[in-house]
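Notebook, student rotation project (T.W.).
Task set for the rotation: take a protein with a known small-molecule partner, predict the structure of the complex, and write up what can be learned from the model alone. Partner molecule chosen: nicotinamide-adenine-dinucleotide. Sequence and SMILES entered below by T.W., checked by me.
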Amino acid sequence: MKNLNGKVIALTGAGSGIGRCLAIQLAQHGSHLSLSDVDEAGLKETKELLSQDIVVSTHIVDVADREQVYAWAENTVKDHGHVDCIINNAGVTSIASIEEIRYEDFNWVFNVVFYGVLYGTKAFLPHLKQRPDAHIVNISSVNGFVATPRNGAYACAKHAVKALNQTLQQELRNTSVNITSVHPGGVKTNIARNARSYDSKEIHQEQIVSFEQIAGTSAEKAASIIIKGILKNRKRQLVGFDAIVIDALSRIFPQKFSDMLGFLHDRVRRKRMKNT
Ligand SMILES: NC(=O)c1ccc[n+]([C@@H]2O[C@H](COP(=O)([O-])OP(=O)(O)OC[C@H]3O[C@@H](n4cnc5c(N)ncnc54)[C@H](O)[C@@H]3O)[C@@H](O)[C@H]2O)c1
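Predicted structure of the complex:
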């Protein structure tokens, strides 16, 4: 997408973190916005932060609910006349091993992180194909190419999002719809705080603090990198220096790097368990 000014952009997970910063920065580029989230209060706060000279509609949508996502796509076209871009950004995670996680929680993560992106893509695609210069932006993660312990549901879902993006890039090659697969490293947002953790409250609190210390990229910076990726029609957008390093190491030493991450994770976890 060469220009964002005057374009109609639909965005999920707009009530917090990267989604909120994307909404603010897209508004500054002059885009009209159809914003959605399950969090009504967060969405309202985001809307209040936007400049006044664009058209904004807000919608309470659970991306894991297919009917709600399709209804939102129809309402977006009704409210704005057309839609040029969908950014499938909403996400959640869990902190639990594959052995201990209940199917209910695995499905919660997978339904939001993968099916939410699939529904958003399929619901908006017929509308996007009618536009001369359209874009689908699906947020995966570095966990779309490397997995870490106690984060399995999220890593499985983010790998699936990456596969979906690669498939779409091949299948939509000769259309007006471009696809950007986004892979952030650590970004300071509410994602760890909102995780369903199987650890004690004390350990989860420590995990939140250490995530916020390690996460090297602010949500504002992440949003500006993603927007640059859209404007340059990048097929793959890494976000943050850590993402660049993780991408390189996971390609040069796929097994050794994965083993090393597992080893380091176990060490930190054993230390935390000993101290609480
Ligand atoms: N923060 C990171 O380090 C990081 C790293 C890689 C990828 N990501 C991805 O970036 C995206 C944005 O996450 P964030 O870090 O800004 O987290 P965040 O928790 O700050 O924001 C996520 C938003 O998604 C919304 N949401 C949750 N469940 C929903 C549902 N069922 N339907 C609709 N909306 C829902 C939340 O209400 C929230 O507003 C996610 O896809 C996440 O997986 C984040």
